[in-house]
Design brief:
InterPro entries: ABC_transp_permease. The protein is mainly alpha-helical. It has a two-stranded antiparallel ribbon with strand order 1-2.
Length: 391
């Protein structure tokens, strides 16, 4: 095999390789405990907010390496307001959910106006938002914990003991049939979509890439899907939080890869001046990125208070760092214009496995922070060095 192609392949799938190696390390280090069905389920449930926030953060980073530092505080504030709506005002759950999403979008739009049209740097705008909405969270809750007793809300957004999709196929104890069927169907859909895309490119005379590599990729991804769904089936089935994550990933994966609006984010990050001269409204692109970030922060807020069955003024701390770290580790460029939703999911999963693996091994909390910081630094260094070599 050509060395250049081998090097390109290793660089392209570097984070997947790292994810596999890290998983193998913690499998050895925990005597296989990290792969127990309950731990796989916990990995998904505990990191659902990271997947959601990182997907939104990707759009901000694509516009030129910009970030949103306010997401953790917005998560806390929206969760606090939603808790007050349901528990103190007695508002019906569906109305409260809609209002929480609208509140998140309004907060995002508020910050987006300053960033997109007044040209206040995103770092300053969202740093301000981080302080403002953290303070407002304390005001709304009066510095106290507010229990979330609305069971319909808790179950719908992945909290409590019954936060799993019902097994409508009637699986017995220890084997959820619905989870296995979903895994098989997902594999079939993935293979069909991949093959259809390959045949379309071939028919139009486009570059199709290495066919063997495509088959290997399909086999590996299907194996991972079946492994995860099998582990979920062996516990309690599909967590409802996973359903929300899949909805977000599928929608934004389609937007970023298949729509004109999605390509605008990459164009702005690649060369904003050239993009503007070509007739694209770059201010609107910034506005959409940060408004969307507010909307997804609201969803993450609902997932958080449902999982913890309470709203607290301290929730959401360091959430922004988890989201930003997942994006950069997953291959998003610190300069903007590069990154994918699947890459972000890989980055978030890697961070989750590192956190869970070290927790099971009993690693000190301070050392866990050290390891996460070094992993993030390594990912950004890899991006910078790769970019310099390509130039």
């Amino acid at each position: 095999m050509d060395k250049a192609k081998l090097r390109e392949g290793i660089q392209k799938y570097s984070m997947i390789i790292v994810l596999v190696l890290v998983t193998l390390f913690f499998t050895w280090g925990t005597q296989g405990k990290i792969l127990f069905p309950q731990n796989i389920t916990n990995l998904i449930s505990q990191n659902a907010y990271v997947y959601v926030l990182a997907t939104g953060m990707l759009l901000c980073i694509l516009t030129g390496g910009n970030i949103d530092l306010s997401v953790g505080s917005v998560v806390c504030f929206v969760g606090a307001v939603g808790g007050v709506f349901m528990e103190k005002m007695g508002m019906p759950m569906p109305i409260a959910v809609i209002l929480m999403l609208l509140l998140g979008a309004v907060i995002g739009a508020w910050q987006a106006v300053w960033i997109a049209y007044v040209h206040v740097p995103p770092f300053i705008t969202t740093l301000s938002g981080m302080f403002v909405f953290r303070g407002l969270s304390n005001v709304v809750l009066g510095g106290q914990t507010l229990p979330i007793k609305n069971q319909a809300f808790v179950v719908l957004f992945g909290g409590g003991a019954n936060c799993y999709v019902p097994d409508i196929l009637g699986g017995g104890e220890g084997m959820n049939r619905l989870a296995m069927v979903v895994g098989i169907v997902a594999c079939v859909i993935f293979v069909v979509v991949t093959m259809k895309g390959y045949l379309n490119r071939k028919k139009k005379g486009y570059e199709t890439g290495n066919v063997a590599a495509m088959y290997i990729k399909m086999i590996l991804i299907c194996a991972v899907i079946l492994f995860v769904t099998y582990k979920l089936a062996k516990y309690k089935g599909i967590p409802t939080s996973l359903v929300w994550v899949l909805i977000v990933v599928l929608i934004y994966g389609y937007i970023t890869s298949k729509t004109t609006v999605g390509r605008y984010f990459y164009a702005v990050g690649g060369n904003e001046k050239a993009t503007k001269l070509s007739g694209i409204n770059t201010e609107r692109v910034y506005f959409l990125a940060y408004t969307n970030m507010g909307l997804l922060s609201a969803l993450a807020g609902m997932l958080t208070i449902a999982r913890l069955t309470s709203a607290q003024p301290t929730y959401g701390q360091n959430y922004e760092m988890d989201a930003i770290g997942s994006c950069f580790i997953g291959g998003a460029s610190a300069y903007g214009g590069t990154g994918t939703v699947p890459g972000v999911i890989i980055g978030a999963t890697l961070m989750g496995i590192i956190n869970q693996g070290m927790s099971i091994m009993g690693t000190d909390q301070n050392m866990q922070k050290v390891v996460k910081g070094l992993v993030l630094l390594a990912a950004v260094i890899f991006d910078v060095v790769s970019k310099k070599r390509s130039e």
